[in-house]
Specification:
Distance between the termini: 83 Å
Strand order of the largest sheet: 1-4-5-9-8-7-6
Number of strands: 9
Bound molecules: 3,4-dihydroxyphenylalanine
Structural class: alpha+beta
Order of helices and strands: HHHHHEEHEHEEHEEEHEHH
Number of helices: 11
Strand content: 15-25%
């Protein structure tokens, strides 16, 4: 004869097995294992049993409780699996996926990366300075007197507190020399700002790479060699470079740099790409004064400097007709450089 507990277990297992959905299964769980369920009731009844019976029935009760709990869990898992596969059945795995939009670097950034790479190979390191500058770093220290037209409010964005948006990256020459003594070999890429009439070749914000090299016996030959190497790496070995005399307050002599290359669309045309020259002694003196020493003694040290027009270089290299395209964020334009 079987024990009533075994009877109870068989009833429970049958009921669980025949449960058609989660609600029926839950009802069965409450009925048998719930606080006042029939299996739980046996727990209460245990107290009334004699010493001999107690361990035997206790063991059986445990087995029954475990068996019922395991059956419920197994059934519940079946329902969960059914639910999941029902949800998946609506998914057509043969449909094409949603592709991730692939980003790419802005043409100016690409130009910058290439340029920095070339200068790095020649031993230049990066220097940096703020876009919002004071007049001293932008003009005075660069030997540009108060009456110089570049300082005019018509040409420069001034802030109400007298500071300004730097009109060139030459400010970083001064900041670099204030920070460290010679010898010095730095490039400083960055934005510059001018109140120009905006057209296909002028924008209020544009980009430059400033270069500064200070050592003993630096000459125009060093400057020419460096920039010629740079231009040929960038535009191809057939590139011709021309230096034309010019005037900048912070260099003497001063030279404008032109390139011409058959590899380019405008193959027969000389295009201006940079200003450059030999650092003016007055610039070293201004730096010394700010430093409070004679680290940049113009009797001992000489240097060359240059400022490359990044937008111009990118326009030449990628054959871009209008500088404003760089800032318009038009994906039809940008995708061409992806
Ligand atoms: N700062 C000049 C400009 O923006 C370019 C320039 C000329 C930079 C001569 C230099 C330099 O470093 O030596 O027009």
């Amino acid at each position: 004869m079987s024990h009533p507990l075994e009877q109870l277990r068989d009833d429970a297992l049958r009921e669980i097995e025949s449960a058609r959905d989660e609600q029926t299964l839950e009802a069965a769980r409450v009925k048998y294992l719930g606080r006042s369920g029939s299996v739980s009731a046996w727990g209460e009844q245990m107290k009334t049993l004699g010493k001999d019976e107690k361990p035997i029935v206790g063991k059986l009760l445990n087995e029954v409780r475990n068996a019922v709990a395991a059956a419920i869990e197994e059934r519940a898992q079946k329902f969960r699996a059914q639910k999941e596969s029902a949800a998946l059945s609506n998914i057509d795995i043969s449909l094409p996926g949603t592709p991730d939009e692939r980003g790419s670097l802005h043409p100016l950034t690409q130009m910058l990366d290439r340029s920095i790479d070339i200068f790095r190979r020649m031993g230049f390191v990066l220097a940096d300075g703020p876009d919002i500058e004071d007049e001293w770093h932008c003009f005075d220290a660069l030997n540009t007197p108060p009456e110089h037209p570049a300082r005019n409010e018509q040409d420069t964005f001034y802030l109400p507190d007298g500071r300004l948006l730097r009109t060139h990256t030459s400010t970083v020459q001064i900041r670099a020399m204030q920070t460290a003594p010679p010898p010095m070999r730095v490039i400083a890429p960055g934005a510059a700002y001018r109140r120009d009439e905006i057209d296909a070749t002028h924008n209020a914000q544009f980009h430059q790479i400033e270069g500064l090299y200070v050592d003993e016996n630096v000459s125009v030959a060093d400057l020419k060699g460096t920039l010629e190497f740079f231009m040929r790496e960038l535009f191809g070995a057939e590139t011709q470079v021309q230096f034309r005399p010019h005037y900048f307050p912070f260099t003497e002599p001063s030279l404008e740099v032109y390139v011409k290359s058959k590899a380019l669309k405008k193959g027969e045309q000389w295009i201006e790409v940079a200003g450059s020259g030999i650092v003016h002694p007055a610039v070293f003196e201004a730096v010394n004064k700010a430093r409070g020493d004679k680290a940049y003694d113009p009797e001992k040290w000489t240097g060359y400097a240059f400022g490359l027009g990044m937008d111009r270089l990118a326009m030449i290299l990628f054959d871009i007709p209008d500088i404003r395209l760089f800032a318009q964020n038009d994906l039809r334009f940008l995708r061409q450089f992806a």
